[in-house]
Amino acid sequence: MSKKKILQKKYKDRLEYIQEKLKKNHDLIIREVDTDKGKIQIIFLESLADCGNVSLNVVTPLIEAEEMSEDIEGVKGRILTNNNIGDVKSLEAALMHILSGDTLILFEFIDGMIFSESRYTKARAIEEPPSEVVIKGPREGFTESIMDNMALIRKKIRNVDFKMERIVVGEETNTGVIMAYIEGKAPEELVNYIRSKLKTAQQKYIIETNYIEEELKCKGTAFDTIGYTEKPDVAVSKVLEGRVVVLVDSSPFVLTAPHFFMEEIHMADDYYLNKYPQNYFRLIRWVAFLIALLVPGLYLALTTYHFSLIPSVFVFRLAVLRAGVPFPTFLEILIMMFFFQLLREAGVRLPQAIGPAISIVGALILGDAAIRSGMASEITVLVVALSAISLFLVPKLYGATSIWTNVILIFSGVLGLPGFFIGFILACSHLAGLDSCGYPYLYPLGSMRDFSFKDHIVRYDVRKISNNILKKEDS
Amino acid sequence: MKRFFIGLSLAITLLLTSCYSYNDINRMLFPIALVIDIDEEGNVLVSQEIFHSFRSQQENAEQGQRILYRRSGKSFLDVISKFEEMGAQPFSYTQNKIIIFTERAAKEGIKDYLDALHRNQDFLLRPYVAVYYGDVVELLNMEIKQNEYLGLYLFDLFDRPVERVTMQHLKLFEVLKKRRMGKNVLVITSITIDKNPLEDKIRKDGAAVFHNDKLVEKITTEEMKPYAFMVDRARAGFLDVPHPHGEDKLLTVQILKGNTVSDILYEDGKVILRQTINVRTSIVGTEASIVLDEETVRKIDASVQNTIKKNCHELFHKYKEKGIDIFDIQEMFHRKYPRLEVENAIEVTEYHLQIDHHIEGTTNVTSFR
């Protein structure tokens, strides 16, 4: 068999293979171009590819070529005008390029395939992220476009050591995941750990960052041991502190690892505004977290077991306020907390225009009606509302704190103050047992002397806390 | 293994918890004052003033209610258990503010009551203890305008700091502690009803002196001042001394600062109690005009010293003669000479008192415009 026939057969087989694999796809375009040397097939997905780019940089140069090259390097070097083209080694890779929005070029007279980048996805504009609003500081937020997100980070770090490694995750979606870090600053074992976790991820498909997060995070906990952010400035600060950030295609959230409990209390504008008021607000957030976690349990323990610890006048007031309530205090608190969760869920699920209004009206009416109907006392409504409002000050701890509040509440209901302390100690032990990519989740507590993470309860001067936080001080 | 240990620790906690007593706060009866009396036949009479919350169907509103309970029995705990027969809800003594012994019960002896109050874990150790001279029914039914509850009123009366030369009001735990020290002498605040043409009032009325848990004597309101000086409690208050220019008139000084340093010495079978009373005063009132020259100030100074000295000596000798050690001399002696034994220290005590008195001017400003 002559060489020409062999090439023609390969060309035909490849085309048939791709047609077979991508059949029943309305957006599949196969454009045939006749040249003096033979046929060329240009294959791309109309929905993903930039058709103008394909016409301008692939189709037109091939048609207008005065003399078609017979080797692949000649086509790449002298004919195609796109700036990102390359060889395709296998048919699986060819399919992957097509499914990613690239254009695949098959030659009847050349033994090889070329891809020309033509990806085009309509991305949301860069907007202020709704979940991390700041008073002062950058307003831009990540979008669903991984390229945009990479650009948002890259433009802030002009450093040759800054690396962005691409790893494809998900058997069915083949989602691009970018692991970004500063070489030499991020601990090598951390980078290797995350890389190996991503490469061995068992996920069949990746739709959102949480699919990756679950591969990296500590199991069996409601606390987020992997951080996430929508703000490029936050992601950049993490990278500069020696951490690794993970970007997932089609998600506006960027993962940061390792992530520590302390950071749940910190807000981005803590670093952009005057440190004295911000430290005050940070302390308020700490207090709010403790109120949210402990006050319902403490209230229950004191008002059902330990009357002697409450001032007499307040005991009498509490007794009068609860005089008409038929339920035990324990049940009363659970009911009110359940009501609150209903309201919150309704507020979150309803459209943004009416959600907050429904929540406020619902809270006012439900709270008032619960008291009037004798289902709950004013003080219980106050305690539950205080706990709930406090929780809004530390939104990233919402889920975990809600669960642990209930755990402490149950212990307090069963055992009084000893139960309250058991619940609290269990919560502390649980926190102390967690780790984030090999680092203790409660870091730097217990290791403040060894490490340079100085940004904990209060913030010091930015100059002093801008360190490589994962590096030991003596190293 | 981790789960096993968590389960085990929880099980142990549950099983070993002795105070397993969930109670809703609105389903409790809270005694606020406990009055202990005895009748002619020697039965114990206990009266309680109780706070109770309920929802009124008539007014459709929640409110607190004052309930008075009274039962009698063979012993204190017998009476306490009898209250359960009439209380529709459990009793919680956590809010009890005061334990009042009547004069009759106190004379009979309070040892058994203290023992029961100490051992029974339903009672707290922090209520004040007082002795009441008068009729119990009148006390409990008296209308107190400052507070709806007698217990809360007396708590405020005892607990607030006062600008008077007076002794420390004892709480139950202090009573239990003091009766084990020295010669088992207790000085407990006494109260009475002040019959007044305008309105009857409850007032403090000196102190009741207990020896071996029985009421034996009473310190009058006048004797309270020297007593307070001698037990180092004279921090503030007023002293009336004769006017330097007229014997029928009085001059009042205010104690700004005061403390008493006591020391014990044992010599030749005698105990010498040496006390130095340091007191700073300021002239705050006079019944007649006064020129404060050096001579007058010296006279006032001497007068204050003499008044304190005379009253202290009188009080000391009164109780020395009775052999009742209200000044804790036995305890001081025991601490200083733990190996020496003296039967009753006050009976062989010589009292040496030194007064270090200083009158302070009320202002340094001498020129006004």
TrEMBL record, chain A:
GO biological process terms, semicolon-separated: spore germination
KW Nucleotidyltransferase (keyword) present: no
Record Pfam families: GerA
Residue stretches spanning the membrane: 283-302, 314-340, 352-371, 377-395, 407-427
Entry superkingdom: Bacteria
Keyword field: Membrane, Transmembrane, Transmembrane helix
A single GO cellular-component term on record: membrane
Keyword Phosphoprotein (UniProt): no
Protein family per UniProt: Belongs to the GerABKA family.
UniProt-recorded name of the protein: GerA spore germination protein
TrEMBL record, chain B:
Similarity comment: Belongs to the GerABKC lipoprotein family.
Native source organism of the sequence: Natronincola peptidivorans
Family annotation (Pfam families): Spore_GerAC (PF05504), Spore_GerAC_N (PF25198)
PANTHER family tied to this protein: SPORE GERMINATION PROTEIN B3 (PTHR35789:SF1)
Domain Spore germination protein N-terminal: 22-192
Phylogenetic lineage: Bacteria, Bacillati, Bacillota, Clostridia, Peptostreptococcales
UniProt main location, coarse: membrane
PROSITE patterns documented for this protein: PROKAR_LIPOPROTEIN (PS51257)
Superkingdom per UniProt: Bacteria
Protein location: Membrane
Keywords associated with the record: Germination, Lipoprotein, Membrane, Palmitate, Signal
Membrane topology: Lipid-anchor
Classification via InterPro entries: GerAC_N (IPR057336), Spore_GerAC-like (IPR008844), Spore_GerAC-like_C (IPR046953), Spore_GerAC_C_sf (IPR038501)
Protein name: Germination protein, Ger(X)C family
Spore germination GerAC-like C-terminal domain span: 205-341
A GO biological process held by the record: spore germination
